[in-house]
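Query structure, 383 tokens:
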């Protein structure tokens, strides 16, 4: 295995070891989930039983107290065995890590009940992430005591296993800029339905189906924040800074596992100078992705989310995506015809890694943001 060596605390060892122990079973189920578009439901049950649902909850609130670096290593390990499980679980993991960070570093006590419930009840949190992003989506109409919300949230990874969807909706008021309110949605509410839409190239086991919300009443007390639509807000500086190193840990783990499979297959063939060169290029490319991901983690560890940290995290995100994808391409070439067989697991990783292209900030907006930052231009509306 080619992971970048880093000093590991007991906490990292504990949750990574737990993930590794689950890995063999996850790997066995990965093929079936992929071939039949099945959500990895059994894997989620195992993650709950192992206590990994509460890995990011502070110890004082009943969890394992893992920080973002530790959680990323856990997700990387899961991705070696099942990319879909790692990616879907990264969405829960970052929705826990964000309030945990706010509790630790901003002394925000309002998040404490949620974190205690995650630890005590094993709640699974969902993210509407990409379908909400900076502009927001869905419609919230002001009514007495709250809002009436209707929306369709796409890419809701792990929807089937989720208890609470952390999401938002757009409020339109005459003569005022659109606003986005953020609130939790109980998945068992009668106004909430999962629409089975997830038929995709890769990451088929994530169960990233649409969630349909029809006329859900959201009381004023449940609205965590209100912000301008289409403009970065300090809360989103926190969200993006913490979330993307976790999401891209899953893709890094997929690339690492593809590398290991390719090396194993290549060793079974006659060694040629070209194959040796391919292996070297592959490892060099993978190391670039690993170092870029390490940089993302270092930015998180500054504990100072801002427009500048978004720039650095998103530069890292682009470098991880580009080099993780290229690593798997080189792995396919190194493996040769053997990599084309589903039974070897490499072609699934080739398909899974393509998802790294699509999370924000995608290549164009990321370059625009970085260029504006370099030239001293406004970035508040670049997303």
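Result returned for the query:
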């Amino acid at each position: 295995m080619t992971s970048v060596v880093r000093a590991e605390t007991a906490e990292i060892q504990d949750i990574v070891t737990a993930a590794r122990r689950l890995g063999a079973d996850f790997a066995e189920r990965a093929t079936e989930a992929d071939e039949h578009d099945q959500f990895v439901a059994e894997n989620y049950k195992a993650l709950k039983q192992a206590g990994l649902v509460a890995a990011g909850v502070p110890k004082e609130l009943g969890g394992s107290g893992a920080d973002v670096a530790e959680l990323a290593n856990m997700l990387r390990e899961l991705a070696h065995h099942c990319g879909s499980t790692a990616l879907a679980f990264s969405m829960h993991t970052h929705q826990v890590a964000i309030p945990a960070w706010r509790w630790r570093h901003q002394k925000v006590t309002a998040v404490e009940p949620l974190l205690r419930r995650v630890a005590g009840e094993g709640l699974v949190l969902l993210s509407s992430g990409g379908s909400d992003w900076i502009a927001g989506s869905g419609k919230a109409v002001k009514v007495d005591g709250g809002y009436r919300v209707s929306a369709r949230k796409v890419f809701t990874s792990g929807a089937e296993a989720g208890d609470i969807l952390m999401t938002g909706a757009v409020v339109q008021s005459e003569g005022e800029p659109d606003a986005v309110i953020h609130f939790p949605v109980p998945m068992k509410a009668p106004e909430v339905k999962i629409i089975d839409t997830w038929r995709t190239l890769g990451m088929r086991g994530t169960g990233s189906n649409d969630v349909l919300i029809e006329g859900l009443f959201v009381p004023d007390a449940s609205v965590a924040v209100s912000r301008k639509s289409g403009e970065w807000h300090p809360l989103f500086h926190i969200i993006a800074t913490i979330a993307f190193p976790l999401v891209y840990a899953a893709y890094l783990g997929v690339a690492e596992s593809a590398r290991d499979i390719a090396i194993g297959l290549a060793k079974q063939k006659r060694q040629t100078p070209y194959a040796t060169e391919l292996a070297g290029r592959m490892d060099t490319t993978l190391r670039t992705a690993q170092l870029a991901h390490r940089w993302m983690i270092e930015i998180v560890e500054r504990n100072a989310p801002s427009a500048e940290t978004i720039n650095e995290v998103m530069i890292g995100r682009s470098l991880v995506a580009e080099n993780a994808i290229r690593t798997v391409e080189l792995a396919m070439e190194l493996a040769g015809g053997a990599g084309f067989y589903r039974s070897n697991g490499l072609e699934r990783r080739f398909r899974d890694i393509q998802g790294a292209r699509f999370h924000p900030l995608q290549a164009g907006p990321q370059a625009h943001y970085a260029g504006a930052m370099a030239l001293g231009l406004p970035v508040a509306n670049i997303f």
